[in-house]
Write a structure and sequence with these properties.
5-stranded mixed β-sheet, alpha/beta, globular
């Protein structure tokens, strides 16, 4: 059938087989094969294959970077010794519960799992913390991919996340698991913004719940997510059942710890209040903003570009809500006087956005400028990684000049030295007592590091479990029958004379490497004290302390 028509003033005649339908500016012909559809299908398939190949290569690079972080930790994890915080976690891991004074249950649970799998191996004990930050590195690169970044952008984003991963994964602390929970929330939130598929709220809710079982500051992340949703087009999801199912999932996961807190009079709130007041008093929070430069070093410009990408760029418009996951914690911790590292989980999403935005910017430049900026970006990341490794990873021999310099920069290293020697000194003092008194002696420790060390290394000397009033140790009591003779570690002679009828100096804590830490400088005395001046129940009520 022939039909006539006009186009731009010209008379046009064309042939059509079958019915013709016009739709919004284009013609769709029925009944005739369409070469355009065939060509589009082929090109789409070719493009998909090309993207799939790049995606596979990018994922392989991310997995290599994550594995490299894990390998570094496995090779260096046993270099020094247990950190005082790790000794507390290890002891708590032997008393599994849904809550502890100093933290929720996730970190002690992984400590328990490590003990089951690896015994008391230091490297094994740190394995899950190292694995957590390694996964966070991979997720950072995947965030860049979801933002539209190609292989190079994914690699530089993940690499920028490595320096903090080297520090956080070197110790078995809640920092590593909290970091992973925040980064996972950020990743799933990016996927939600990209796809507008409300089912991602379930994954976000699960991450928030698990994060609350790791560290209570996760509530700040949840608040940031809620704010981002309310002030962007994601607020339409308030009508979605998936958002509320995600909220329910987070509450359900957190519920066992909440019940534990109710049963224990919300003791963790008292602990957090005490720790915060202490940190403010001794000045740990006064440099919150300068600490952000220490956290990022030469990757700071990449983070700034990432923040601009989310909040101001046209390309990042659909991801505006993600920017709130950095801005809200920044404002919250700044006003509440948090410590600088509290904001560390907010940088991976900035690195991802910065890497993508940087790639888009330099793509329009001349080749010489593009290559120069590419080299500059990678040089900044690599130098930051090497500096982090030098001062945050136990690479140097403990008695070397490098180690002495690293100990000045990273105070955590000092708290890993000397625990076996301390316990040996306590055992020697115990052995100096008479046989009758030796069989009934107890050990009173001033802090959780000393108590954890005695409980760990004291088994080799037949020492009794330490009694201690700090954090969860207090709930384990002072034994039955109450002790009369005590070896007292971590207290001054003034303390001994105030609470005991007799007290004598039996030794002083030393370090064979000459490392100055809390034990050797703040309270080096080891005392033998006898006969408490008041009853043990009365003494124990006021002996509770947080640290």
């Amino acid at each position: 059938m022939w039909r006539n028509g006009r186009r731009n003033g010209l008379k046009i005649r064309w042939a059509v087989k079958g019915p013709c339908r016009f739709e919004s500016g284009h013609r769709q012909f029925r009944g005739a094969p369409s070469t355009r559809n065939v060509r589009t299908s082929v090109l789409a398939r070719m493009s998909s294959d090309r993207r799939s190949g790049m995606s596979d290569r990018g994922l392989a690079i991310l997995l290599v970077l994550g594995a490299a972080v894990l390998v570094v930790h496995l090779l260096t994890g046993g270099r020094y010794g247990f950190h005082r915080d790790e000794l507390a976690t290890l002891d708590d891991a032997r008393h599994l519960a849904w809550g502890y004074v100093a933290y929720p249950p996730v970190t002690p649970f992984f400590g328990w799992l490590s003990l089951k799998l690896f015994g008391t191996s230091l490297t094994g004990f740190r394995f899950f913390a190292a694995a957590s930050v390694s996964v966070a590195v991979v997720l950072t690169g995947l965030m860049a991919r979801e933002l539209g970044g190609r292989t190079g952008a994914q690699a530089i984003a993940a690499s920028a996340a490595i320096p903090f991963a080297l520090g956080a994964g070197s110790l078995m602390q809640y920092v590593a698991f909290d970091y992973l929970a925040w980064v996972a929330c950020s990743y799933f939130f990016v996927r939600l913004c990209r796809s507008h598929d409300p089912r991602w709220w379930l994954a976000i809710g699960a991450c928030v719940g698990l994060g609350m079982l790791t560290k209570y500051s996760m509530v700040v992340c949840a608040f940031a997510i809620a704010t981002g949703a309310l002030f962007t087009d994601l607020r339409a999801d308030l009508r979605s059942k998936w958002l509320w199912l995600g909220v329910a999932a987070s509450l359900l996961i957190f519920l066992p710890n909440l019940i534990w807190q109710i049963q224990n009079d919300f003791v963790s709130l008292d602990f957090l209040r005490h720790i915060h007041d202490r940190d403010v008093r001794i000045g740990r929070t006064k440099n919150f903003l300068p600490d952000q430069l220490k956290l990022t070093l030469f990757t700071f410009p990449l983070a700034i570009v990432g923040l601009w990408f989310y909040l101001a760029s046209k390309a990042g418009r659909r991801f505006r809500a993600v920017g709130f996951l950095y801005v809200i914690p920044l404002i919250t911790f700044l006003i509440a006087k948090g410590r600088g590292y509290y904001l560390a989980p907010g940088y991976p999403l900035l690195y991802a956005g910065g890497a993508v935005s940087r790639a888009q910017m330099i793509a329009r430049m001349r080749p010489v400028w593009r290559l120069s900026l590419e080299w500059f970006a990678w040089a900044s990341v690599v130098v930051t990684i090497f500096l982090a490794a030098a001062y945050l990873v136990p690479l140097a021999p403990v008695d070397s000049a490098w180690a002495r310099q690293a100990f000045k920069v990273n105070g955590d290293f000092r708290e890993e030295i000397g625990w076996p020697e301390l316990v040996q000194q306590v055992a020697e003092i115990r052995d100096s007592l008479g046989r009758g008194e030796r069989s009934r002696v107890a050990i009173l420790a001033g802090n959780y590091g000393e108590a954890g060390a005695i409980n760990l290394y004291g088994q080799d000397y037949g020492l009794p479990k330490a009694i201690c009033g700090t954090n969860s140790f207090w709930a384990r009591g002072y034994g039955d029958p109450p002790p009369e003779t005590l070896i007292v570690v971590g207290f001054s002679q003034e303390f001994g004379h105030r609470y005991f009828e007799s007290c004598e100096l039996a030794g002083r804590i030393t370090s064979k490497y000459g490392v100055a830490n809390e034990e050797t400088t703040d309270h080096p005395d080891i005392l033998i004290c006898r006969h408490l001046r008041e009853s043990w129940p009365e003494f124990w009520k006021k002996f509770r302390r947080y640290g």
